[in-house]
Amino acid sequence: MVCNKCGNKMIIRYGKYGFFGSCSNYPNCKNNIKLSEFMYEILKKEQLNIYSWKKECWKCHKLVPVYTYMIGKQMVPYMQQTYQIGNIGLGSIKKIDNYLIKNFPSINDNYSKTLSKTYASNNCIYCGALQGNNFVVDDPHEIYDDWLSGGMDKYIVKKIDINDIGLTENDLEGNQNNIVQIC
């Protein structure tokens, strides 16, 4: 994404009012936009990545495919080095979740006793067991090294045009709390 005022790269910064999109040429150019607008424009341009890998089912111990989106991973090239967008994946944005439920048979709305709520998540294709989002979205052990090092491109199985989902900038509001400072 480029600044519409000076043509330099836009990045995500942190300021006294929280996170926002800003021109990388600051302080010479003070152009900025809301974080939700920034993420929306990136997803509109690059499309939404759907990731998949094999995970051992906790119940039947067979390797099963799991699917998720990781919006934070798509924003990494636009982040200041000390910040990273966290866990915006399966179970986070209802419009995306509904699209995946319709198009990926192993994704369903499931009730979690641990979380005391229903949310979109993966099920084992063999025994039907809920795979839970903790080890798919928050802490994906099977791909952890690639997840940390930025080598996630090899797990992309589909790119989805956000217009096909009906995703709007408003659907991305409130994800500012998912950004964490790293050292």
Total beta strand runs: 10
Ranges where pLDDT stays below 50 over 5 or more residues in a row are none
Task: Count every helix, treating DSSP H or I runs of 4 or more residues as helices.
Answer: 6
Percentage of residues assigned to helices = 10-25%
Mean pLDDT: 89
As an assembly, this protein is single chain
- Widest beta sheet: strand line-up: 1-2-3
Strand content: 25-35%
Overall outline = elongated
Rg, please? Answer: 17 Å
The rounded distance between the terminal residues' Cα atoms is: 25 Å
Specify the structural class.
alpha+beta
Succession of helices and strands: EEEHEEHEHEEHHEHE
The structural domain count equals 1
Largest sheet: 3 strands, antiparallel
Write the layout of secondary structure elements.
Elements: E1 10-15, E2 18-23, E3 32-34, H1 35-46, E4 48-56, E5 63-69, H2 71-75, E6 83-85, H3 94-103, E7 107-112, E8 117-122, H4 134-138, H5 144-149, E9 156-160, H6 162-165, E10 179-181
Antiparallel strand pairs: 1-2, 2-3, 4-5, 4-9, 6-10, 7-8
What does this structure look like?
With 183 residues, the chain is α+β, with helices and mostly antiparallel strands. The protein has one domain (47-181). The mean pLDDT is 89. It has a three-stranded antiparallel β-sheet with strand order 1-2-3. It is 23% helix and 30% strand. It is built from six helices and ten strands.
